[in-house]
Amino acid sequence: MARKLGSRSEDWRARISAQRQSGVSVKQFCARQGLTEQSFYYWRKRLQTPPSMRFALVEAEPRRGPAEHAALELVLTTGERLRIGAGVDATTLQQVLEALRA
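RESULT FIELD:
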């Protein structure tokens, strides 16, 4: 009757643990236990717990480079043009408009 994989895995977990605790090399341990190194390394890799994935919260902000085109262009009665970029804050815009009215 074939052995279950779970039982086989448990056997190999025990062997791998015993090798770590023995203080001898894998080669020596396998020779003493009648195992092949290839099988030992196969099972050690197979039973290895994958490292837990960690994610970090990252807040992305859009890149702001120099604006090539103004979002708004005001043409004053004097003929001068006032170009206002898309990223200007409301307070600064309000101060500029108040200065123009004065």
